[in-house]
Write a structure and sequence with these properties.
About 35% of the residues are buried. The protein is globular, with a radius of gyration of 20 Å. Helix 1 packs parallel to helix 2. Strands 1, 2, 3, 4, 5, 6, 7, 8, 9 and 10 form a ten-stranded mixed beta sheet that branches. The chain folds into two domains: about 210 residues, Spore Coat Polysaccharide Biosynthesis Protein SpsA, Chain A, CATH 3.90.550; about 70 residues. It is an alpha/beta fold.
Amino acid sequence: MMTRKIVSVCITTYNKEKYVERTLLSALNQTTDFGYEIIVSDDNSKDNTVAVIENIIKTHPKGNIIKLYKQPKNLTVNPNMLFVFSKCSGRYIAMLDGDDQWIDEKKLQKQLDFLEKNQDFSAVGTDSHIVYLDSGKTENFSNFPGKELSINDLLEIRYFQTSTFFFKKSMLQDDFPVDINANDRCLFLLAGCFGKVKVLEDITCNHFKYDDSLSVNLKYEDVKSDFNMYPFITKLSNKINKIEFKRYLYYTLMTYPSILSKADFHKASRGYFLYNVLSKFSFNPLKLYSAIKWSRYTINQKYQIKVKNKSFI
């Protein structure tokens, strides 16, 4: 018997004709003791993505739980995500990228049960498989199953993949920054402002790597936009380490762009050097020397990678 607990599954699509059927079927295959809805926003695809979705709505026994929104013009990734959130009626939101696949039919049930029983948590992720299509290689995404994360933990490596993220809708803010690149990272940090985040041991998702992934060709200005996260998150949390936050932002600005000038790399590396040393500052000369040495080593390593990948313009 269905209860009144409701989950909204959020899917954004753009030119996902080849993959969206697999994605939607994995969401429709969920077995729950609560009702859930699937909110899909297509960002003005130029292929047959919408036709595939409409066919599933028409022919699948559970197709009526899908609500499809067709954007008349391209919003781009972050505004489209925020649009989907605005259409959710659930108390909880589950993220699912338009080309990923849930592989555990109890995923939503497990995550809702956890948050219902643990009110000091605002969100929960899981482990997942990363599937490399070119080689067929598969590996686990997370090496931290079962970990409980604070907001400062979330400034470190990614502990879970976006399509496993499940959170309380009540944490969403009207002023969520629109002009940022890493909207998922900002969402994770936002969850950390309102409680702990859990990583379940279950492997619930396949995340597929494609050569044309959005993360492959990032420009310097794209990554620099993530500095807009800083005032948004620090306004909401007095627990976040502001020096570590700046260190993280400069590290990504130095590391993630695949297209940048040497001048921009050096600007980012100077910021990283300053905040990395400050984050590890000690009056012990040996510890301070170690922090400086490691910072310089990291900068040189990233520089050589950029040279090897011909990233400098």
